[in-house]
Hints:
The protein is an alpha+beta fold. Helices cover 38% and strands 35% of the residues. The protein has four helices and five strands. A five-stranded mixed beta sheet has the order 1-5-4-3-2.
Amino acid sequence: MKRTFRTRATIAAVAVTAAGALTAGIGVAQAGEKDGGRHDRTTKREIAALFDQWNAALQTGDARKVADRYARDAVLLPTASPQIRTNRAEITDYFEHFLQKKPKGEKIRSVINVLDGNSALDAGVYRFHLTDPKTGVTKPLDARYTFEYEKRHGKWLIVNHHSSVLPAEG
């Protein structure tokens, strides 16, 4: 009888300990979920500023400076080209042509999701003001975009960038 009581007591103690550990684990997981699981407190504002830095690189007119914003293994699905760009040379080539239009971007609507301390998404609609190199006439072009960012070696880089002309409503 004593042995059965001890066995039951041991089982009960293990169950209580396991339940306590589980509860503590859930509490820690929920605390991580409340801040998006971000341990270094990456903010939406920080991610939004990456577009401004990219846009500033466009303003330099230097395709290499724009390409520096992209990871070496980035994928670019550009607005003004049907070709998928998957390496630095192709991305630089695209911007050498695009920059001839003196693009100036502005966000119309942005939705930012910080996935963790090292990755984030910024998707929405932006407007480019493009200047025709032959006529000098500037026209707006609205496009959808998605930037996927990763922090690599302490620096935020674009790892995936999709941009497509905004379709007409209807």
